[in-house]
Structure formats: structure tokens, C-alpha cells
Specification:
Layout (H helix, E strand, L loop, with lengths): L12 E4 L8 E8 L4 E4 L4 E6 L8 E6 L1 E3 L3 E5 L4 E2 L2 E5 L5 E5 L8
Antiparallel strand pairs: 1-2, 1-7, 2-3, 3-6, 4-5, 7-8, 9-10
Length: 107
Amino acid sequence: MSAKKFRIKTDDTVRLVAGRDKGHIGRVIRIIKDTDRVVVEGAALVKRHQKPVGDKPGGIVQKEAAIHVSNVQLWNTEDSRPVRVAYTVDADGNKVRTDRKTGATID
């Protein structure tokens, strides 16, 4: 089985297009390729009960849950609009992500 390829990478700004946090704009913290999910900063917050371990106190902790990659959309913060990703080869022969509308490189 080949490795899965996502058009979204860590530290990208994305907008949620489905779910209870629909419309939320945040930064991708982590990508989980095995289950096709991403963790977005400040989105899909859930409460977890944590036991005290070592010097960390126990209690109820809020953390971000994973969201399926199909429910997020790459977001352009400068133009405040969604971005559709295309892959092109630049002058140096490197494969880069580009905006389909403007042709500007994303990376």
C-alpha cells in the first residue's frame, strides 16, 4: 500500500466546512495519515478526565479532537478565501503546491 498524500500540511491555516465547529478557522497541529484525520487548533474541543501523573495534577482537561480531512478546507488568510490546491513544478524542478485561482505558490 502506498503512502497517503494530503493537500494539507502541518501549520497550514484551514477552515472547517462541516460539523459543530463549521466555519472555524485554525492552524493544523497534527496530521494522522492512518485514519485520514487532522487536528485543528481550537476546533472540536472535547473534555478528557486525566489522572495525576508525577508532578502533573489531575482534572478535567480540554483538548482538540481529530477531524476527518474531508471536513477541512485550506484557507488563504490574506484574501480571506478558500484555496484549491494544484501541484506544479517550479523552475528548479521542485514540486510545489500552488493556488488554482491565482497561480501563487503556497509553500
